[in-house]
Design a protein that fits this description.
Elements lengths: L1 E7 L12 E2 L3 E7 L9 E3 L8 E5 L4 H9 L6 E6 L6 E6 L5 E3 L3 E8 L7 E3 L10 E3 L2 E3 L4 E7 L6 H16 L9 E7 L3 E8 L2 H10 L12 H13 L11 E7 L9 H10 L4 E8 L5 H7 L6 E4 L7 H8 L9 E7 L2 E11 L4 E12 L4 E7 L1
Helix pairs in contact: 2-3, 4-5
């Protein structure tokens, strides 16, 4: 912990801390501006290039920056900054990170780095279940060790696209170390009615077998009842004592190609029930433009865990690595400000890497001014 006190004729605030890595894909802190007495302040040279900027976020958070960048596959990173004389965070998402140039701004530059199953990085997780992820034999050993795969098999998908989605799920399953002492996996299907494939199993062979052996019906005229599927998920896998759930936290991959045909309020009631449970994380993946983004937002436990693939052909290895990272990663960043007679900025961040390195930084800076108006901002990530 370092404390620096300065006195000047203007109110200044220079001590800010930012995590080295952010989720859902890894966002690596590449460059730092005029922050914490940085001797060589730099930023991306594309930070304010309108030809490169994808989205401009104002009065925002780091988590919002991550969510917006995640939602756009053209996003290669972002810059987060404080404008001169302001205490609210701004963010520009970028299609190119360009090169490093000198800067006089309080700014941080994050680059988007796709995860690999052998090198997952994580910030602190709100789930209490287990240690950070490691790798065993090149596959993911997740900190959330009970995982449910939920796959839409309604008639709108069709046999060909269902096979693509099924293979995507099998690839996800194969990325985990499913074994008695590590990950246990369960699976279900849903259309107008939910269908159990397997309760939590510690056998990779068994889980792969039940997912592979299902025969998609032809013709298939079944609709989509997403709320019913969510209720089935809660009752069958989480609240049912005989399901094999170990109670330490559950990760759900929920994959659908459309919107529910249920009455208004059914899905919201079901998802409220799901998210009221302890230690549940839900990743929602929508496929094609027929999906309802608001429904995906209800299903996912955080906006950062909403993904949309424009076509079934977009269910590829890059997307797989993105959503795999959700098994162990979460980041929050909040900011508040008020008027006082001094200026203080405090920020705390923690990051943990699967290489067993851990870093925690806390910094506090107080500066007193002869001016009568000052501001206070607090940020936590």
């Amino acid at each position: 912990t370092t404390t620096t006190t300065t006195t000047s004729t203007t109110t200044t605030s220079s001590a800010l801390s930012f995590p080295q890595h952010l989720a859902s894909m890894t966002y690596s802190l590449e460059l730092t501006g005029v922050i914490n007495d940085n001797p060589e302040p730099q930023r991306f040279n594309t930070a304010f290039n309108d030809a490169v900027i994808l989205d401009k976020l104002r009065d925002t958070t780091l988590q919002d920056c991550v969510s917006v960048c995640n939602a756009n596959m053209d996003c290669m990173g972002f810059v987060a900054f404080f404008a001169v004389g302001e205490s609210t965070l701004k963010c520009n998402t970028l299609s190119s990170t360009g090169q490093a140039i000198s800067t006089s701004l309080s700014i941080v530059s994050y680059a988007r780095v796709p995860q690999t199953t052998t090198a997952l990085r994580t910030t602190s997780t709100s789930l209490t279940s287990a240690p950070v992820s490691t790798t065993q034999g090149g596959v993911v050993s997740a900190c959330i060790r009970d995982i449910v795969f939920v796959l839409d098999n309604s008639g709108s998908i069709g046999a060909t696209n269902f096979e693509i989605a099924r293979q995507f799920v099998l690839d996800l399953i194969g990325s985990y170390n499913i074994s008695p002492d590590d990950v246990h996996a369960a699976a279900m299907l849903f259309n107008s009615d939910p269908m159990l494939l397997t309760l939590f199993s510690d056998s990779m062979e068994d889980v792969v077998s039940v997912v592979s052996d299902y025969v998609y019906p032809q013709p298939n005229t079944a609709g989509t009842a997403t709320g019913l599927a969510v209720d089935f998920l809660v009752d069958t896998f989480i609240n049912e004592p005989s399901s094999g759930y170990r109670g330490e936290g559950v990760l759900v991959y929920f994959i659908t190609d459309g919107m529910t045909l249920e009455e208004d309020g059914v899905l919201e009631a079901a998802t409220n029930r799901l998210h009221a449970l302890n230690n549940v994380r839900v990743v929602a993946l929508g496929i094609t433009g027929e999906v309802n983004s608001a429904e995906l937002g209800l299903i996912a436990s955080d906006p950062a865990f909403v993904y949309v693939a424009e076509t079934f052909q977009d269910l590829n290895a890059v997307l797989q690595q993105e959503i795999l990272s959700a098994s162990c990663v979460t980041t929050t960043f909040t900011s508040s400000s008020s008027s006082t007679s001094s200026s203080t900025s405090t920020s705390t961040s923690s990051s943990t890497s699967t290489s067993t390195s851990t870093s925690t930084s806390t910094s506090t800076s107080t500066s007193t001014s002869t001016s009568t108006s000052t501001s206070t901002s607090t940020s936590t990530s």
